[in-house]
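Worked Example 4.2. Consider the chain below.
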Amino acid sequence: MPSVSAPALPVAYDARARHVTFFSPALGLSRSFYIYIPPDVTDNHRAPALYLLRGHEREWVNPFEDQSRGGRNVIDVYEDQRAAGNIGPLVLVFPGTSSDDNGIPGMLVNMRAPHLAHGALGIGSGRFADYFFDDLIPYVERHFPVIADGRARGIAGFSLGGAMALSAAARRPDLFACAGAYDGTFLYACDRGRRVRKRDRVVTNAMFDAAYGVPRDLTFVARHNAANLILRGKWEELARVTWVVAYGPESQEPWQSNYYRGEHLLACLRARGLTNALETPALPDGDHSWRTADRFMAQTLPLYDRALRQESSRAPDHVRHPR
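Applying the procedure from the previous section yields the following structure tokens:
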């Protein structure tokens, strides 16, 4: 008889992070994520959740995602900050927001043209917004010891993950107490937030064909871009979010920094009377690497922690400490 190959096991990028696969009704297929739960977080002592985005679910937990990282990852950053007494317990969730091969970004939108993914694994229906908001967050809150009431959630990301993180928080400020981005690939908002710059090299990049359609549905793109959402959203809702934005220096443009895109995003925040929690957003010796993304997290974890503690303290006792 021919031998039958066993299904491939997930790579153990970090034994401290659990690899979880569940069925997403929105996508019509199974998707995976990683989750890190500190040892002192239990069903009786739940913690806020911080969702960290990039593209593939492995990226934040893979200590060798690029050569700059030196064998460390964001869990090491978290544990260093915790040992120093700078933060309390947080559950870290690492969702996948792309095709399984990381070639086609989902952008946390319900894709305009999922057929243009040409059958790439992990795309399914292409409804990544519904997957994230309606499937993933409820699944995490049903199955893991996180505080599931109020806005005891934060979201942050690097590069496209930063663009997605701020877009998610601006679309649903009721769900997040804080939102952070390092070197986010933000699009430029035009016409007081009604449009995006159509000749932007990011907008025209073919890897976004499935997400944004061909020809580009620029109205749809603007409706999901963080800068546009900030310019046109309800101020009283956006003002409840702690916004945390940083980027590489101007000297590293265009390939190792999204300095101008970050400056544009901050200009949109200022136009609405909203503030950035970081006084110096351009990191002088930063670049578009995981080394700097991890350093951004070391700098900003206390800011997320503070915002999340304020929100979690408002949760009912039976939610914070279930019996």
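The first helix runs from residue 74 to 83. Residues 163 and 186 are 5 Å apart (CA to CA). Compare this with Example 4.1 before moving on.
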